[in-house]
Amino acid sequence: MSRVVAIAGGSGGLGRALVNALKKSTYTPLILARKVTLFRIANAPLEEELGVPVLQANYSDLDSLVQLLGSHNIDTVVSTISNYDNSHFAEASLIKAAEQSIVTHRYIPSVWSAFDYGENQENALAASRLALINALRGTPLEWTALYTGTFLDFYAITVPSKDSAGP
User: Fold this and answer.
1) pLDDT grade for 6, boundaries at 50, 70 and 90
2) What is the distance, to the nearest Å, from the Cα of residue 29 to the centroid of all Cα atoms in its chain?
3) What is the mean pLDDT of the chain?
4) Residue 127 has what pLDDT?
5) How many domains does the chain fold into?
6) Which of 40, 100, 31, 38 is nearest to 72 (CA)?
7) Residue 150 pLDDT more than 70?
8) pLDDT at residue number 39
9) CATH number, residue 121
10) pLDDT higher than threshold 50 for residue 37
11) Sign of the torsion formed by the C-alpha atoms of 119, 125, 127 and 132
12) For residue 57, what are the domain limits?
């Protein structure tokens, strides 16, 4: 079994905190970031700062995502992609790629929440998150949804540790 974990959205607050924690473990973290113009130039300092590779992920190209997961031997994907705009296209594509990859076996979707939505689809945010969970239910992937409560590191006055991503 591979010990490579890809953090989709790993350059943001929560993603960066996960990357920092994984660097101290027996796992090898990688960051998946959206494909943008001049990506390597813009993220070279981040790669150097965090000490982990930052890989371009083109979420609109399923075949390239499958190849990316396979070529880097990524066993587990943890998503911290923002889905607040009710646009879960990028993550839905990543779930399909993980399902098709022969090396990827585990997935944690970006449905981070203070509570379990159940089957309540009355608001757009809940519907978006439930769509991701339902997509995972239809795959052979091992997966879990995390309902962590409020992240007080980001919503309360604190003194950040040197390892935290900060507010």
Assistant:
1) very high
2) 11
3) 82
4) 76
5) 1
6) 31
7) no
8) 47
9) 3.40.50.720
10) no
11) negative
12) 4-155
Q: What pLDDT shows up at residue 146? A: 83
Q: Is residue 161 part of a domain?
A: no
| Of 71 and 12, the one with more pLDDT | 71
Q: Is residue 164 part of a domain?
A: no
Which residues are CB-neighbours of 23 under 8 A, at least 6 positions away?
Answer: 29, 50, 51, 52
Any domain includes 34: yes
In a domain, 104, yes or no: yes
Length of the chain: 167
H-assigned helices in the chain: 13-23, 39-50, 62-71, 89-100, 124-137, 152-155
In terms of pLDDT, which residue wins out, 140 or 166?
140
Nearest Cα neighbor of 110 from 146, 72, 79 is 79
The pTM (predicted TM-score) of the whole model is 0.82
Q: What is the mean pLDDT of residues 51-61?
A: 90
Q: Rounded to whole angstroms, how far apart are CA atoms 108 and 131? A: 14
List the Cα angle 14/18/21 in 5-degree steps.
Answer: 140
CB atoms within 10 A of CB 111: 24
- Tokens matching residue 129: 């998150």
CB-based contacts of 86: which residues, under 8 Å, 6+ apart? 124, 125, 127, 128
Residue 57, strand partner residues:
34
